[in-house]
Amino acid sequence: MELKITCIPGDGIGPEIIAEARKVLCAVAEKYGHTISYTDVLMGGASIDVHGVPLTEEAVAAARNADAVLMGSIGGDAATSPWYKLPPNLRPEAGLLSIRKALNLFANLRPAVLYDELTGACPLKEEISKAGFDMLIMRELTGGLYFGERRTTEENGVKTAVDTLVYQEHEIRRIAVKGFEIAMKRRKKVTSVDKANVLDSSRLWRQVVEDVAKAYPEVTLEHMLVDNCAMQLVRDPAQFDVILTENMFGDILSDEASMVTGSIGMLASASLNDTKFGLYEPSHGSAPDIAGKDIANPIATVLSAAMMLRYSFDLDEAADAIENAVKQVLKEGYRTADIFSDGCTLVGCRQMGDLLAERV
Ligand code: NAD
Fold first, then answer.
1. DSSP string, 195-243
2. 10 Å Cβ neighbour count for 17?
3. Over residues 39-62, mean pLDDT
4. CATH number of the domain at 123-261, please?
5. Which CATH code of 3.40.718.10, 3.40.640.10, 3.30.565.10, 1.20.1290.10 fits the domain covering 1-106+268-360?
6. Structure confidence at residue 133 as a pLDDT band (50, 70, 90)
7. DSSP-derived secondary structure letter, 81
8. What pLDDT does 120 receive?
9. Do 1-106+268-360 and 123-261 show the same overall fold?
């Protein structure tokens, strides 16, 4: 199979972690007989330095022209970088918001996995962490409270602020379909999270999700109120497979789920539209504090590349090979500095990439 990928190395540690992800993808392509063609484009600070803007039309066109986008991370140190003296719409992060919008990426996927070897990093009690967990938070990314009408008014000295939470049926349906499709590739359970005891938008959410569920009889659907879900994530995270939720709830719950893994350098993510196309990137930022030192953990980016193979190319076996290589390397005791503990072998970014590629 020919995989056409647009690559955005980005800023800070971005180019280093992307180089390692490509090394691992190359090993997978060789093993399973695929060819990969990359188009590299600039975004964020790297694009500002060359083109004066964080995202060019050409970069968007290159992304549209590919089957998937693999991204490192963008941005710099806000206190010292000249990029942050520019107006907000010309700063590095504006590039990311623009590309998500241009590509209609409405579904954000963030897996939170606790590896047996890293349970020490999990801030939960041992009796909870020992059960492990492997969940995926699916967050609606382009609707809801963050995109509804907002205004602040003042009448007779009283200030009033209003934000509107709007969802249309088709917006809920398309993300629910994604959620169930992805659950079919996992443990076939969807927990739909809402606040249906209070919000009309949640009652519509629940109704549409139930309707979509009829087409997926193998998938178990449960509904959970968001306040309960926030508690269950720290009480019994092992119960979750796919958590399907709207924009704001997903924003908060996905950060909570990331924190309970305790390892920011391990967390992948994907943003999808209603085709097979997706943008895949680590959940972490560009870590300018450690850029260029060969100490960044490339695993989140490598796992994002595995998600790309699974969700954009349906190459589940190749994705499994990458995920198993990560487990193997951890089992053998190799660690980058961010996940290092006593008795392990400390490796740099490049060496971690080599080890993963060898084990694929
Ligand atoms: P960050 O995630 O870059 O770093 C937070 C801490 O985690 C730092 O100490 C960093 O060294 C460490 N860290 C992050 N990734 C690591 C890795 N792979 N290996 C080892 N250690 C790692 O968050 P920040 O410092 O708040 O942001 C830095 C820049 O990244 C900012 O400009 C921010 O806007 C940008 N950012 C970009 C994205 C994105 O591109 N999607 C996401 C978040 C932040």
1. -TTT-HHHHHHHHHHHHHHTT-TTSEEEEEEHHHHHHHHHH-GGG-SEE
2. 32
3. 97
4. 3.40.718.10
5. 3.40.718.10
6. very high
7. -
8. 84
9. yes
Give the neighbor-by-neighbor strand order of the sheet with 2-10. 35-40, 2-10, 68-73, 278-282, 268-272, 107-114, 133-140, 242-245, 189-194, 220-225
Domain locations in the chain as residue ranges: 1-106+268-360, 123-261
Top mutation candidate among 69, 100, 264 for ligand 1, by most atoms within 8 Å of CB: 264
Q: 196-220, pLDDT tens digit by residue?
A: 999 999 999 999 999 999 999 999 9
289 lines ligand 1 (CB under 6 A): yes
The finding on whether 41 has its CB within 6 A of some atom of ligand 1 is: no
Residue closest by Cα to atom 12 of ligand 1:
287
pLDDT number for residue 8: 98
The answer to whether the beta carbons of residues 214 and 190 sit under 8 Å apart is no
Give the CA-trace dihedral at 125, 129, 133, 136, to 10 degrees.
Answer: 30
Q: How far apart are CA 181 and CA 195, in angstroms?
A: 23
Residue 234: count of CB within 10 angstroms of its CB: 15
CA angle 154, 155, 160 (to 5 degrees): 45
Note the pTM of the prediction, 2 decimals. Answer: 0.92
Cβ atoms of 104 and 274 within 8 Å: the answer is yes
Q: Calculate mean pLDDT across residues 27-44.
A: 97
For the stretch 167-186, pLDDT in tens is 999 999 999 999 999 999 99
Eight-class DSSP state of 111: E
- pLDDT band, residue 189 (cuts 50/70/90): very high
Nearest protein Cα to ligand 1, atom 44: 285
